[in-house]
From TrEMBL:
Transmembrane segments: none annotated. One of its GO terms (cellular component) is membrane. It is found in: Plastid, Chloroplast. This is Chlorophyll a-b binding protein, chloroplastic. One of its GO terms (molecular function) is chlorophyll binding. PANTHER family: CHLOROPHYLL A/B BINDING PROTEIN. The light-harvesting complex (LHC) functions as a light receptor, it captures and delivers excitation energy to photosystems with which it is closely associated. Energy is transferred from the carotenoid and chlorophyll C (or B) to chlorophyll A and the photosynthetic reaction centers where it is used to synthesize ATP and reducing power. It comes from Helicotheca tamesis. Chlorophyll b binds at residues 53, 93. Chlorophyll a binds at residues 88, 91, 193-194, 197, 199, 211. InterPro entries: Chloro_AB-bd_pln (IPR001344), Chloroa_b-bind (IPR022796).
Length: 233
């Protein structure tokens, strides 16, 4: 029996309703996924330019101020500058230890830890160390690096070769003596001192290595010979 209002038959209504619901689900599902992903990642923060971000970091001090003679910061973004600063901090800390190792190691040639067989310039002392030293050292370095990566670096699947956005540069939670200040200004000043000492250590170690390669003489022996020749002692 035909309807006086010419309604479509029930089967046609069902098909139209099902088609509409499928189109709606196709649109809604990706939107829900985007909202869920954004909720997991937190609020989006607009990144500053590399130069502007670098001006907010510790390490800017006289007489050079923000030292960038090559203009590398002009084309860098914030993520890149964060990675550079993390590398600078890491290399500065390593070379501060290396500078101390050069000076102390050359004065302890008869130290019984290695049987008193270590002598000469520091650049040749590693080759004189016997077995049983390198294996624990490599393991220790690997553990330290794995911990540093876990604390500061983002998952490479999601964000390759980048640091975590909430990572405080250089802060690995290592402060056994409780020396880290809680005041923001004091902490900023302490970070600047660490960076400056690390930069000086990188230059110093490069000089140590070059000098010992040239004349194969220990650091202080070279210093005393130079003073003797210049002053006439």
């Amino acid at each position: 029996t035909s309807s006086p209002l010419n309604y479509p038959p029930p089967t046609l209504l069902n098909k139209m309703f099902s088609s509409t619901m499928m189109r709606g689900a196709t649109i809604v599902k990706p939107c829900m996924e985007v909202r869920q992903t954004a909720a997991r990642q937190g609020p989006v923060r607009v990144q500053a330019s590399g130069l502007e971000y670098a001006k907010t970091l510790p390490g800017i001090s006289g007489p050079f101020g923000l030292f960038d003679p090559a203009g590398l910061l002009n084309d860098a973004d914030e993520s890149t500058v964060r990675r550079w600063r993390e590398a600078e901090l890491t290399h500065g800390r390593v070379t501060m230890l290396a500078a101390l190792g050069f000076v102390v190691g050359e004065q302890l040639e008869d130290f019984p830890l290695f049987g008193g067989n270590i002598s000469g310039p520091a650049i040749n002392q590693f080759q004189q160390v016997g077995p049983g030293f390198w294996e624990p050292l490599v393991l220790f370095i690997g553990v330290c690096e794995a911990y540093r990566v876990a604390v500061g670096w983002a998952n490479p699947v999601d964000n390759f070769n980048s640091l975590k956005s909430n990572y405080d540069l250089g802060n690995l939670g290592f402060d056994p003596l409780g020396l880290c200040p809680t005041d923001a200004d004091e902490l900023y000043e302490l970070k600047t001192k660490e960076l400056n000492n690390g930069r000086l250590a990188m230059i110093s170690v490069a000089g140590f290595v070059a000098q010992e390669f040239v004349n194969n003489t220990e650091i202080f022996q070279h210093l005393f010979k130079t003073l003797e020749a210049d002053v006439g002692l």
